[in-house]
Amino acid sequence: MSVADRFQAAIIGDGYRFFITRKTDKRQRLGIRALKTQIIPGDRIQNRFENVDGIANGLFAERKEFVMQSTVFGFVFWGFLLVYGAIMYAVAPNARTVGAFFRGEDNSGREAHRWALTASIFISWVFGKSVTNAANLGASYGIVGGLAYATYWLSILLAGWVIYRLRRATGATSLVGFLIGKYGRAAALAFTAAILIRLYNEVWSNTAVVGGYYGAPGSSAFIGAALLFTAVTLIYSLKGGLRGSIVTDMIQAAIFVVFLAAVLLLVLPKHGVATLIS
Fold first, then answer.
1. Which of 17, 60, 127, 186 is the most exposed place for a label (fewest CB within 10 A)?
2. Which residues in the chain show pLDDT less than 70?
């Protein structure tokens, strides 16, 4: 049924018609403004019908195209999470030993390479919420805002220097071991509890970042994406343990560097350094 058919008209003598609109949900969704009750000459009513039909058909076509594009984009966007999970699970090594699962060794007992550990620490520190905060500040205040937050990443070097000094001075192989030897088990337990709180905050904040790309906070799409991302990460982490985490972190660090270089190559030539600073 066309939009014109939704209108009621009654012939009121001398070739004039009484034209009354019917308010329908579909018309309201289309955004067609209700026509006021008015008397229209009979020879003009058909043109009115045709004009309204033309507008409605155009809106219907645009809406249909938009829905189709949104559906395709939705499948691709959600499919990305599934493909990402499948790839990470495939490349994560299967930890068959205690050393592989808890200490990051390979199945032959060899320790992870220092550059692999460096990449893992780097990407674990800056990815997710941290990068999002830097990007948001950069969008609001230019490169100054982004760099202001990014100075926080210098704590990676500071933490590395502190741990190096502790290891050289005390021979400790872990922070928990150092605390037990220096201050007792209660101190180590308190430190572990603080790390657990920080880890919990890290997990929900990073999953919230992923969920934010799929829907508004609290929406079903937001929660679904956050849960799916958490499940994907948990599954490949259970498969590979610390060794799997290091391997997948290396891949994510490489992806981060490649995309960062691509963005810089696309943005800088078009806008220049002065625009980014402003």
1. 186
2. 1-74, 271-278
Name the residue among 237, 206, 66, 71 with its Cα closest to residue 128: 206
What pLDDT, on a 0 to 100 scale, did the predictor assign at position 194?
93
Helices (H) and strands (E) in the chain, counts: 10, 3
> What region does 111 belong to: left with phi over 0, alpha with psi -120 to 50, or beta?
beta
Residue with tokens 């949900």: 25
pLDDT at 190: 94
Spatial strand order in the sheet of 8-11: 8-11, 16-20, 38-41
DSSP, collapsed to helix, strand or coil, labels residue 128 as: coil
Cβ proximity of 226 and 208 under 8 Å: yes
Residue 256 CB partners (closer than 8 Å, separation 6+): 123, 126, 127, 131
Q: Which two tokens stand for residue 254?
A: 């490489």
